Amino acid sequence: MEAMAEAQERRRSSGKMAVSSALGVRPRMKGTLLPQDSLRARKAGKEARDNRLLAAAGLDLFRRGLAFDGVLPELVEPRHPAVTPNLNSIPENGVGDSEDMSSQAIVIIGGSLNNRGEVGPWLPNRIACGIQLYWKVMKTFAEQQANALCYVIPISGDANEQAVMEEERTRESLVGAGISSHHIVMDCTASSMIENTVLLARLLARLHIQKVHVVTSEFQAPRVKLCIDGVLGALDDLGFSVAYYCAPDDLSSAERAQRDMAEQTLMLKTQKQLHEAINQVRSLAQNGLLSNPTSRHSTRSPSRLSAS
């Protein structure tokens, strides 16, 4: 009996070992990079999503004048919110009605980010030119002892997560160059260059600004000029004066020709939208929703500006 019991026990143990071997550690996959590549891609995708989430959360805190102290948000000095829907909360500093008001604005046209969430090839040069213009304007204010401000307005062409990250990266560069975050006005709600220009018109009117500097790249300048001159030019009573600056784009002749064709196509496609935007801002002005400084609208042709 004991011998039979021992034999049965050995059979059970042998069966358990066989099952354990079948369900045990999977054999290593040698000679392939598939498992490692898949894990790396999955990790990179998660990091990209996390970065977008952090950028969106950071912008939301920035708009509300909040900052993290450890793990809790703490109320700090208020900053300028997005142009919409909080346009009325942007302060006018008590000098908006002054006849000698000489505040200015620098508009930096954005550029797309690459697949790693880094600024593309043109945006750094535009930012550098915008910074150069800012300090030039501020130096003039100091020499004239003017009671005026210079606002920097980075704008992008899309209302998506990438646009939020793009404007956050632009703001970081501007603040890193010594520009006060209180003088940086961001908006991530517009879905096109034309919508951005309509919001820009409302913002300029709110801040009683007439002199505007627009920084873009040479290949993009005709379309930018068409949009901004079309919308701001429709508000003749507001007296906007717009100057354009082209940052270096380092394009080859073939690349420039390709970009020029793409820009021409975009200008043709957006004619209807631009016409609607012009009518929209005229309606805003007629209904008293825009301020009414004196003088006339004028523009200057684009000029080249070094990024150094």
Automatic annotation (TrEMBL):
Region annotated Disordered, chain positions: 1-27, 289-308
Comp. bias (Low complexity): 291-308
Domain DUF218: 104-250
Domain of life: Eukaryota
GO cellular component: plasma membrane
Protein name per the record: DUF218 domain-containing protein
Organism: Lagenidium giganteum
